[in-house]
Design goal:
- By secondary structure, the protein is of the alpha/beta class.
- It is 37% helix and 13% strand.
- It is built from five helices and four strands; from the N terminus they run E-E-H-E-H-H-H-E-H.
- The chain has a four-stranded parallel β-sheet, with helices on one face.
- Helix 1 links the parallel strand 2 and strand 3.
- The longest helix has 13 residues.
Length: 126
């Protein structure tokens, strides 16, 4: 199931768990994870790019711990990290110039994860 809370219609971004099968509607598939997800074969992932450098810092990721009560602050801190990571953000924007991008994540929480926060960031920054 793809979730796109708060994503602007001008950018064609989807958010999807890596454990869901690839679809032709995914467009360019970008894994947003520092560590390869367990149980997923690289050959089956159908990735366009594995963008490890755009993930939250280890410190931020550990602090967040997928606690929904920390979601708002996590997003603010992650946006600050993204503002200082123009190379990785630029790579993603270049892909968006070529059409739909599906941001893939491994977390179980479909609403509170770095791919959702990244999609929101991109839609806010245009």
């Amino acid at each position: 199931m793809a979730v796109n809370p708060g994503v602007d219609d001008e950018l064609d971004i989807k958010v999807k768990r890596i454990y869901e099968p690839p679809s032709p509607n995914d467009g360019q598939r970008v894994l947003i994870a520092r560590i390869w997800p367990r149980g997923v074969r690289k050959a089956d992932a159908a990735l366009t790019l594995w963008l490890k450098t755009i993930t939250p810092s280890d410190e931020l990721r550990k602090w967040f711990g997928h606690e929904p009560t920390r979601w708002m602050e996590f997003q603010q801190r992650y946006r600050g990290e993204l503002d200082r990571n123009s190379d990785a953000v630029g790579q993603l924007r270049a892909l968006l110039d070529n059409g739909r991008v599906t941001l893939l994540y491994g977390a179980q929480d479909e609403l509170h994860n770095n791919a959702v926060a990244l999609a929101d960031y991109l839609s806010l920054k245009g």
